[in-house]
Amino acid sequence: MSRILIIEDEEAIASLEKDYLELSGFEVDIETDGSKGLTQALTRDYDLYILDLMLPGMDGFEICREIREARDTPILMVSAKKDDIDKIRGLGLGADDYITKPFSPSELVARVKAHLSRYDRLIGTNLHKNDVIKIRGLKIDKTARRVWVNGEETQFTTKEFDLLTFLAENPNHVYSKDELFREIWNMESIGDIATVTVHIKKIREKIEFDTSKPQYIETIWGVGYRFKV
Ligand code: CA
Description:
- The chain is an alpha/beta fold.
- It is built from 8 helices and 12 strands.
- It has a 5-stranded parallel beta sheet, with helices on both faces. It has a 4-stranded antiparallel beta sheet with strand order 6-7-8-9, with helices on one face. A 3-stranded antiparallel beta sheet has the order 10-12-11.
- The longest helix has 22 residues, at 105-126.
- The protein is rod-shaped, with a radius of gyration of 29 Å.
- The model has no long low-confidence stretch (mean pLDDT 89).
- Residues 9-10, 52, 54-55 line the site of calcium ion.
């Protein structure tokens, strides 16, 4: 459940906002004093702040600046004066949205929802995990193009990396040297398939405990190679 902090000194407005937001399933706290509001904002985890501009203790400009220095959480600023909204925009304090009083509670709820889902998408993008293949002691980070063998990072050339990754992504499938050459070197194989053999040998030296008994890349005699899982 998303948690919202309202910093607003007009209690009637604050409780109206709270009621509507709670009806929409949000958890809501209210602070009526600016400096207490800032403390609350930074000591508890919130998903969004609704911040009035004119407040006792500390004004909304300062609170917005302070919150923004510490957090990326969306801030919705509320003001009775259109002029103030223009001023806030001009100051570039990092608020995400502005609403002029009076506003309808449903408009507020709609904006809150829009900002929360936008922020969720942003967070989701930032946390997007690297594409990693893990097979026994072998870990291949495709995004970062890095390889670890039994926990130790090991260097691979571009083609070695491409070949290893291709085989590991297509396990239990036998590929001929011609197929691998076309796949990795991206051109028609004209008898230069020895390149594949050389690369397989180098990869094995890096990933296999005993290259004479490969655990990962098997040789299928007369056919090609197969990545074993
Ligand atoms: Ca006020």
